[in-house]
Amino acid sequence: MRKCMSVMLCAAVLCGLAAGIAGAAEEISINGSTTILPFAQSTAEAFMKLNPEVRMSVSGGGSGNGAKALIDGVTSIAAMSREMKEDEIAAAVAKGRNPVRHIVAVDCIVPIVHPSNPVNNLTVDQLRDIYSGKITNWKDVGGPDKNIAVIGRDTSSGTYEVWDEKIMKKTPVTPRALIVASSGALVQSVAGNVLSVGYDSLGYVNEKLVKALTIEGVKGTPDTARSGQIVTSRMLFMYTDGNPSGDLRKYLDFLVSDDGQKYVAREGFVTLK
């Protein structure tokens, strides 16, 4: 009898543990754009403080990698600094996924140079000519008689995709360009080379390290990004598989709320309002 009661008690405990696990909050993972990474991390931390039972993880790797992770079903959210492509959506649908887009912030891409560079403005045509290799000397755009060191992003980057569309117009980038894998690495690379030029999200521009140039005389600011006055303005997105619910819905609602957008602004990015 005693043995029977012991077995029953163990079974009850196991059932209770199973029920507790089943009722536990979901773990939310965010994967993708290194542009979005700073405010994805800060809002995730803030959300977990408000909801201690929730666990979140955030990783970068580029917008393309975020899309692939969502397609493969290994992330809750794909963070993307560009919209999903038609072939990515088709691949997701083929695997039974339903990518749903959420606009979470605004941004613009700005050309950056070393702070000692006297150049302050470049036109779209000049930028295209520099990145295609047609212009190779700073003297041709008002700078010193020195060769230009071109630095760009890898093709999995959403920042690259937007730059390719709005500045390069699909013109190939010179093979002499140094290609880096993240927004942070690009800033560091430009800061370390007085003859370099790069491009990065407004949120990554650190005036102690690099100087942002105007494009066609238009400065990258929250106002010019929101209005689309600067040619490189863009939205920043998070994609989910289907319409989110539960803690995932709560996190996205928090992110676009006034409280969540404070973290977007704190990281140097442009809020929705």
Explain what the structure shows.
The chain has two domains: about 25-105 and about 235-265, Periplasmic binding protein-like II (D-Maltodextrin-Binding Protein, domain 2), CATH 3.40.190; about 105-225, 3-Layer(aba) Sandwich (D-Maltodextrin-Binding Protein, domain 2). About 40% of the residues lie in helices and about 20% in strands. It has helices at about 1-20, 35-50, 65-70, 85-95, 125-130, 160-170, 185-190, 220-225, 245-255, 260-265, and strands at about 25-30, 55-60, 75-80, 100-115, 120, 150-155, 180, 195-200, 210, 215, 235-240. Strands 1, 2, 3, 4, 6, 7, 8, 9 and 11 form a nine-stranded mixed beta sheet that branches. It has a two-stranded parallel ribbon with strand order 5-10. The longest helix is centred in the first third of the chain and has 21 residues, at about 1-20. The radius of gyration is 23 Å and the shape is globular. About 40% of the residues are buried.
Going by helix content, strand content and strand pairing, the class is alpha/beta
User: SSE order in H/E notation?
Assistant: HEHEHEHEEHEHEHEEEHEHH
- Beta-strand segment tally: 11
How many structural domains? 2
- The fold-level CATH name of the largest domain is D-Maltodextrin-Binding Protein, domain 2
Sheet of most strands = 9 strands, mixed
- Estimated helix fraction: 25-40%
